[in-house]
Amino acid sequence: MKRLLSTACSETSFNIAALVIRVTFGLLLLLNHGIDKLQNFAKYRVSIADPFHIGGMPTLMLVLFAEVFCTVFMVLGLFTRIMAIPVVINFAVIVFLVNKSYDVHHESGVLFFAAFLSVLLMGPGKYSIDGAMGK
Question: Which of 40, 71, 85, 103 could staple 30 via S-S, CB 3.0–4.6 A?
């Protein structure tokens, strides 16, 4: 009971929390959004929001890079902080440019933004490929 009420954070609990956040949000993003965009590429190419006016194809390619490529690396814990940067930028654009007004249907973007910003700040933790390599 004393440990449950403690405000101290052990290194092990920090590393487990980093693993849980990294893997949970990474797999949710990959399976629910990234793979869907890959499977329905043609549909998303014409319907994706284009806040920077660079065209549907380049915008979709940047989103796929963040939601598929970078997410796989983050789930594995390989180059985690570097791979978190495009994902954080992706969700910053979604939250602050695409979905400007807060709506209950847009809260998942805020949650993903907060989770991946946390991964960027915390790093991968000990239970990752980066942690095993000693980076």
Answer: 71
